[in-house]
Amino acid sequence: MASGRIVGAVEEHWTVGRVAELAGVSVRTLHHYDGIGLVRPSARTAAGYRAYAAGDMERLREVLAYRRLGFGLREIAELVDDPSADAVAHLHRLRGLLLERRDRADEMVTAIDRELRTRAKGLEVTPEEQLNLLGARLYDTIGDAYTATRRTDPRIAAQIWDALGDARTVLNVGAGTGSYEPADRRVTAVEPSAVMRGQRPPGSAPCVDAAAECLPFADRSFDVAMAVSTVHHWGDPIAGLREMRRVARRVVVLTFDTDEPGWQDRFWLTRDYLPEFAGVLAEFPSLAGMADAIGARAEPVPVPWDCTDGLFEAYWRRPGAYLEERVRRATSVWTRVGPEAEERAVRGLGDDLASGRWAERNGDLAGLDAADLGLRLLRA
Length: 380
Prior knowledge:
The protein is α/β, with parallel strands linked by helices and 380 residues long. The protein has three domains: 12-79, Orthogonal Bundle (Multidrug-efflux Transporter Regulator, Chain: A, Domain 2), CATH 1.10.1660; 85-134; 145-377, Rossmann fold (3-Layer(aba) Sandwich), CATH 3.40.50.150. It is 45% helix and 14% strand. It is built from 17 helices and 13 strands. It has a seven-stranded mixed beta sheet with strand order 7-6-5-8-9-13-10, with helices on both faces. The protein starts with a strand and ends with a strand. The relative contact order is 0.09. GO terms for molecular function: DNA binding; DNA-binding transcription factor activity; S-adenosylmethionine-dependent methyltransferase activity. This is MerR family DNA-binding transcriptional regulator. Pfam families: MerR, Methyltransf_11. Residues 13-82 form the HTH merR-type domain.
């Protein structure tokens, strides 16, 4: 009994003391969870003492993980009692929450680095700026930038909605704040980020807290599943695409092509100022691999010169926009490449715009109404 582990004919059990040791919590905490019905040991030792079965251990793991992410016990009870979520669904949800927290931490590191550079130059940082950079308003500022610049572009939307065809029920996976959701269909949204869900406008489609890799819907529940500029954020893009194929009769995905030789040079920003962009997509699946996963064909999605959706490539004919902090904060690329690469790129672009070098290199863009910068629509 020293190990705290009891092996019976059918299943294994663990004593309360051993579980407390493994979980890094006190026996008192476990008794509290038992008392409020959160995690109750369901087995008995040979001596008649209560013990934890494998299912109890799994539930405890979920409870402790949500607790360490800052959830209250009442919220945790609702999460772990959700009948639509199994262990895999909880793991995907926890992974999404951790990635969201990591992204927030990255944003804060970027903010700290920015203030350190400002102070190193001997410049004053006002109390208001300090609070905006590091205080409670940091994430509100990031969110405001996203909603202010990431809006549905009607020309891109027309291509996406044409691909939806006559579908009446639509699942929008990785829905974010709801851009490109068609108003004339019955839409269900899926979004694992609480920050994004909180920014969805009143009256938007109902939104489910779930990950693309584990969609809580039966096979062929929807006419079509769509995903717009989100696949690169998924932990396992191919698994997510296959899930979309499972729950819907057809699939429409707006994504990015890294198959074409020299794809990094399609866009002057990544070619001349931000080569680190290639590293951001280093582990991204090939376009051919994504298409094969769902049986899709790919078609180009040109980016209009006055694109109203502030995606990374949107300002290809308006280079000065990339010098604006609010524009950069609305896309994840800049956080992913890090503050040093961002500062160098912005400084180089600013210098070239001031000297006229950018115009000399890219003068041929002035006559274009749209550009193929690698966006692709997968239709399956």
